[in-house]
Design goal:
By secondary structure, the protein is an alpha/beta fold. The chain has a single domain, classed as Rossmann fold, CATH 3.40.50. The chain has a 4-stranded parallel β-sheet with strand order 1-2-3-4. The longest helix has 10 residues. The protein starts with about 20 loop residues before the first strand and ends in a 13-residue tail after the last strand.
């Protein structure tokens, strides 16, 4: 028998074992650092996409917040807007890195 699971968009506000989600950080400014850190910390999987890796590195290097797990689980993209040093650092720290070579299929704004 298949179990039906309801998902509510604001369920991330309540931290429970059942509220599992993936946090995906794109190459966009973070307007609320505290919220970004909380969402990152409470998520099951953390992914940075391309320049989002540099955005995350900048946040953790300039943050007043305690972040237990700073390393993304996955870094992906064509890496045209990411700082290669950040990618290599996170890779050495255990992040999985998957490069996507197709320029027309990688960036959020280029998706067809």
């Amino acid at each position: 028998m298949n179990e039906i699971k309801n998902w509510w968009p604001y369920s991330y506000r309540t931290k429970t074992e059942e509220n599992k989600y993936c946090f995906i950080l794109l190459n966009q400014p973070i307007l609320d650092s505290a919220l970004a850190v909380r969402l990152w910390t409470d998520s099951s999987i953390n992914v940075t996409v391309d320049g989002g890796t540099s955005v995350w590195a900048k946040l953790i290097n300039n943050s007043q917040y305690s972040i237990e797990k700073e390393v993304p689980d996955l870094i992906t993209g064509d890496f045209d807007s990411a700082d290669k040093e950040n990618i290599e650092y996170f890779k050495r720290m255990g992040a999985e890195v998957i490069e996507t070579m197709d320029q027309d299929r990688t960036d959020f704004t280029k998706m067809r």
